[in-house]
Each structure stands twice: as C-alpha cells, then as structure tokens.
Amino acid sequence: MTEITDRLNEFTAPVSMKAGVKGLVDADITQVPRIFHFPSSALSNNNGPSDISGLNLTVPIIDLGDIIKDHDDNTAARNVVVSKIKEASETWGFFQVINHGVPLTVLEEIKQGVRRFHEEDPEVKKQYTSPTGFNNQKFIYSHNFDLNDSSPLNWRDTFICFLAPDPPNPDEIPLACRDAMIEYSKHVMEFGAFLFQLLSEALSLESEMLKKMDCLKGLFMACNYYPPCPQPDLTLGINKHTDNSFLTLLLQDQIGGLQVLHQDYWVDVPPIPGALVVNIGDFMQLITNDKFSSVEHRVRANRDGPRISVACFFSSSLFPNPTVYGPIKELLSDENPAKYREITIPEYTAGYLANSFDGKSYLSNYRI
Fold first, then answer.
1. Which of the chain's termini has less CB crowding within 10 Å, N or C?
2. How far apart are CA 96 and CA 82, in angstroms?
3. Which region, left, alpha or beta, applies to residue 20 given φ > 0 means left and ψ of -120 to 50 means alpha?
4. Which alpha helices (H) appear in the chain, and where do they start and end?
5. Which residues contact 288 (CB under 8 A, 6 or more apart)?
6. Which residues, 6 or more positions from 42, have their beta carbon under 8 angstroms from its beta carbon?
7. Could you tell me which residues are beta bridge partners of residue 113?
8. Per-residue CA distances from 272 to 68, 242, 254 (Å)
9. Cβ contacts of residue 140 below 8 Å, gap of 6+?
C-alpha cells in the first residue's frame, strides 16, 4: 500500500484525479506528476544508428483519388495502388491515405464531437466510467488513472465505443458526440470494406477474402484527448505498443505527435489535412504469417493542445466471437510454414490487455 499511498500523495487540492489528465491541466499544474514520468530509454527518439541521413524515413502516402469512385473501372490505377499498399504493409506497417472519399465535414465534426465530450463537466463524464472494466458497456470513458499499476501513466484521456457488430443504442452515446460518431462510423465501415479488398489483392487473394474471414465484422473506436503538457520531455501521450486489431484507421488533428518505429528509429507521422492513417494490427500480421507487419508506435506529449485523435479498430475485442484465426492457408507452403498457432480474438485480447503497453509485442507469445 505504501507505493499506492505515495502515488496518491503526489496530488493535492485543487487537483482532482476524477477529472483525468485534463483536470490536472485545468488546475494549472506547472510540473508533470512523477507517476507520469517515463524512463529516458522509453523517451529516446533513436534506438538505432546515429547517422540516419541516408535512410528513407518517410511514412508512405497513398493517393486513392483515381480509384475511390470507380472501384472496378480503372484496373491499371487500382493495380498501382494495390502495389503501393503491399509495399507499405510489408515494410512499414503504416501508410497515410488521401482522397479517400470520406467528406472533410465528417472528419471535422467527429474531431469536434470528441473535443466537446472531453471538455464536458467532469460529473457528466463520470456517468460513463466503468469501475469494473468493459463490463459489456458500449461506451466507456477512462481518465487514465490506475494507481494500483506501477507503470507510468499516459498523458491522455480517452473514451471507447463499441460499434459493430452490435451497435449501441443512440442514447448510450453522449449527446456531445452522438451524431458525429454515428455518421463517422458509417463512413469508416464503408471505407474499411474497400481497404480490406485492396489488402486482399495485395496478398494475391480474392478481393473479398478478408471480408469473408470476418475481419471487417468488429469495430470499436477510441477517441483520445491529449491536454497540453507542461513538461513534454518527461512523459508520453501513449507508450509504445502494437494494435489489437486486423487494421486500424486513425484520424489525427494538426498538432502531431504520432511516431512509428522503423529501422530502430522513431519516425514522425506528420499530420496531413484530410488524410487518414492506416496501420496493420496484430491479427493481420498473424493471418498473413508475417507478410504484413504490425509495428510499434507511440504518441509524444506536446506543449500545444489539446490534441485530438480518433482511432477505429477493426476487431471484436473482448466481445464474443467464436471464430478461430490462424495463418491463411493459401499463403502457406513447404517453404513458408505457419509461424503462429490459432487463436480467438477475445482470448488474444484478454492477454493483450493484461500486458498492454509493457513495451513488448504480445503477438510473440503465439509464435510457433
């Protein structure tokens, strides 16, 4: 109990833990509490060689403008895009897409909706917390404080909403972000179906293969709020991790801070107005037998803010899903045998969450 007491004693009135990280900032703190401090090794920007000037450290940007309206009518352009997605998924695990067809007004409204909720009165937000974890709630607000955990805390507040296959009733979503979330999720599901077609083709599989495997079946959204940080060199918005998903679609605002680990170097994923960030998740790496890479990424804290991001994860998470996933048989051969054992998503997710953000890829536990 001593350690927990010490962590509690870092906070004095008027700072309220119940108001999350935003509550700390609203109390005009000038120093980041010790429980948010990360070791210097976790904050380092370069794990590799000191001279990286000769490396091409630019996250790929893929223009979908030539194929987004006529999915099947421009074969040559589609083949070019599929080739770029294949290369990005194999070498980076990340890419940005522009001219993707999701209206800019929809992108702006979801960012504003997320901000409206996080800037609500703490008593309003408290109604959506869950003291016992997920507990089958469809909408959960988390103010990030777990004083029983000795790990450093991330400099963010977040809420999660489970949207598919069993969507919440509209009145389960707070009014501040309700319409924006419902509208954005429709576009995400439609665009996600198109992305899974392109990824199937990038694997030289039939276009609907990944959809038939129910990769598109589950969707949950994590909406993050990163308040301005008085000492951004001491903490992180999110510690390094890989994603518990087949695919993640991220909308970020213009403040920046997202980084991907590439060739042992943390590379910025610069905000591009109207762009969406796509990254490969753990389940996609598993079913593609390491052909596509789920890579570590993190978010740096920033003096500017608040930073808003909306991450949509194609995964059923802890909700019931009996489907067993393993490497796709069409991708295997005598020269390329299965590298992972089969698993269900809820089983994987339970272990992933128990070990989440510990700096290690949980997927390695399932390698044969």
1. N
2. 14
3. left
4. 2-9, 20-26, 40-43, 75-91, 104-118, 122-126, 178-202, 209-212, 282-287, 345-354
5. 203, 327, 328, 331
6. 152, 236, 239, 240, 359
7. none
8. 19, 22, 7
9. 128, 129, 130, 134, 159, 160, 161
173, 161 in Cβ contact below 8 A? yes
Q: Is the dihedral of CA 249, 163, 124, 171 positive or negative?
A: positive
Task: Give CA–CA dist 217/219, Å, rounded.
Answer: 7
- Tokens matching residue 264: 């042992």
- Compute the Cα dihedral for 194, 200, 203, 205 and give only its sign: negative
Q: In total, how many domains does the chain have?
A: 1
* Strands 94-98 and 61-63, bridge-based pairing: parallel
Rounded to two decimals, the pTM is 0.91
Here the tokens at position 102 are 């999701």
pLDDT by residue, tens only, the chain of 368 residues: 445 445 545 554 334 556 889 999 999 999 999 999 999 989 987 655 555 556 678 999 999 999 987 666 689 999 999 999 999 999 999 999 999 999 999 999 999 999 999 999 999 998 998 765 556 689 999 875 554 456 899 999 999 999 999 999 999 999 999 999 999 999 999 999 999 999 999 999 999 999 999 999 999 999 999 999 999 999 999 999 999 999 999 999 999 999 999 999 999 999 999 999 999 999 999 999 999 999 999 999 999 989 999 999 999 887 778 889 999 999 999 999 999 999 999 999 989 988 765 556 799 999 99
Write down the residue that tokens 């576009």 correspond to.
Answer: 187
What's the rounded Cα separation, in Å, for the pair 289 and 368? 11
Assess whether the previous peptide bond of 170 is cis (omega < 30° from 0). no
Tell me how far apart the alpha carbons of residues 308 and 300 are, in angstroms, rounded to a whole number.
13
Q: What angle do CA 191, 301, 142 make, to 5 degrees?
A: 65
Helix, strand or coil for residue 314?
strand
The CATH number assigned to the domain holding 121 equals 2.60.120.330
The b-or-e profile of 166-186 (16+ CB within 10 A means b, else e) is: eebeeeebbebbbebbbbbbe
170 is in which domain, residue-wise? 2-366
The two three-digit tokens of residue 176, written as one number: 């501040």
